[in-house]
Amino acid sequence: MRDRFQKFLLLISRIRYSKDRHLYIGVFAFMALLLFIFFGLYIKMRADLKVRDNILESYYDQPQPGKDIQEPGRDKIKVYICGEVIRPGVYEISREARVSDVLKLAGGPGPDAALQSINLARRVTDEEKISVPSLEDIKSQEQKSSGLININSASQHLLETLPGIGPATAENILEYREKEGPFKKIEDIKEVWGIGDKKFQEIKGLISV
């Protein structure tokens, strides 16, 4: 094909300036225009076919209405997952699924998720609620069980439950933690503005680090 094209160009170059040469040039330009049009239509047709194939593939990959119920082993259940996950919500999943499978559907655990506190290998049940706790939730539970308030992790609301600690003093504790870092021992809380020896004596038996 390439040789024929070169011969055609050579033939045109040998023709002198005349009406015949102008005619050949016109025919060549017309053929080139047709070739360009047909090539563009071909590319568009291929793109349309690809889009159609993608639509058909995505359609047939989806379970058909009622198919999961009729076919054994494909029955689905719905589970609600919340807490420290990326996308909390209700998800439809196989009855054979585990907690780890539901966690994947929810986008995975959040940055503060305490996964060690839940059984990822447990099989889920229909209408179940899975709550993924945060590290702060675990610390709060530990504080409640021990009866002591950890001054390194307690929230302002929890600090205000201590005797003599109001909103302003609790906020001072939070600011101190943020600037100076965690307390190394409970006596260090006396470095906070508003907490002296007298107030420390009132709360030392209720706090921990």
What does this structure look like?
There is one protein chain. Strand 1 (76-83) and strand 2 (89-94) form a beta hairpin. 50% of the residues lie in helices and 11% in strands. The strands form two sheets. Strands 2-1-3 form a three-stranded mixed β-sheet, with helices on one face. Strands 4-5 form a two-stranded parallel sheet. It is mainly α. It has three domains: 2-61, no CATH class; 67-133, Ubiquitin-like (UB roll), CATH 3.10.20; 136-208, AF1531-like domain (DNA polymerase, domain 1, Orthogonal Bundle), CATH 1.10.150. The model is unreliable at 58-73 (pLDDT under 50).
Key words describing this protein structure:
single chain, 209 residues, mainly alpha, Ubiquitin-like (UB roll), DNA polymerase, domain 1, 3 domains, 3-stranded mixed sheet, two-stranded parallel sheet, 5 strands
CATH superfamily of the largest domain: AF1531-like domain
Helix percent band: 40-55%
User: Overall pLDDT, averaged?
Assistant: 78
What are the secondary-structure elements, in order, as H or E?
A: HHHEEHEHEHHHE
Radius of gyration equals 37 Å
Q: Compute the number of strand runs.
A: 5
Q: From the helix content, strand content and strand pairing, which structural class follows?
A: mainly alpha
Which sheet architecture does the biggest sheet show? 3 strands, mixed
Query: Which overall shape is indicated by the principal axes computed on the Cα atoms?
Result: elongated
Give, in spatial order, the strands making up the sheet with the most strands: 2-1-3
Architecture per CATH nomenclature, i.e. the level-2 architecture of the largest domain: Orthogonal Bundle
The name of the CATH topology of the largest domain is DNA polymerase, domain 1
Low-confidence stretches: 58-73
Bin the strand percentage: 5-15%
CATH class of the largest domain: Mainly Alpha
Tell me the distance between the termini: 85 Å
The number of helices is 8
Q: How many structural domains in the coordinates?
A: 3
